[in-house]
Structure prediction request, 268 residues.
Amino acid sequence: MHDFPLVLFTVLSQVAIGALVTLWLLEITGKKISVSSGFTISSVIAGIAIVGVLISLFHLGHPLEAYRAILNIGESWLSREVTVYAIFILFSLMYCYFWKADRPANRKTVGALATLFGAGTIFSSAMIYTIPAIPAWNSGSTTLSFFLTSILLGPIFVGAVLQWRKEQNFDFSRITLVSTGLSVIFLVVYLTSLFSGLEQAAQSGVQIVNSGMFWIRMALLGVVLAMLLPTIKGSKSNNTVTCSLMFLLLMISELLGRILFYTTAVHL
Prediction:
């Protein structure tokens, strides 16, 4: 699929942003995280962010000319995305360094800036696709789905790494329960809006529903919700295997969803 590099870039960038924001929020709200774990997580986040950029270059006909994308920042959402994301990566590397150097005040400030530019990246990415020519994309649902991916994958990624690091100081099961539930609700509302919209939007909806990837995605979300059912009764679904498996299932789900996003687009 020609758009597969964009699938990986958008999902990986949103994982990195969501994870960095999660780690930053944990620290500023007083959660105890060891310096070694903070450095490990922030290093992986920076690595994921950089890998996402490198993968996105494969979508270009002339990767070595990618720098030209920033030359039209005043008019192009693509230029804004490239610029803002580059700044996010810079701050993520600084954030990683301040974990290594054990400088809490610096990393709290840099984390706040990274959060700001991370949110700007997701918004800019979404605006690239919010275009009248493709009715299925031309609404706030695109922006919402991109932010939801970050909220869905970022916290559970951090939770899984903390579990592997034997730090069980925060239970991510509740936020994952909420974000997974919101994902299911979003999909239902989104499909309803497609079927009640323009003919081309309805055609996109038909392609989505008729795709096996959609039903696999729904099944994966259902499995995660079932794993989180004990959370409703006050129990914790917060161990290494559970967190890791939930992240894997949700990651697959979001990749399938993003593939459908690109492959079911119907132009006017």
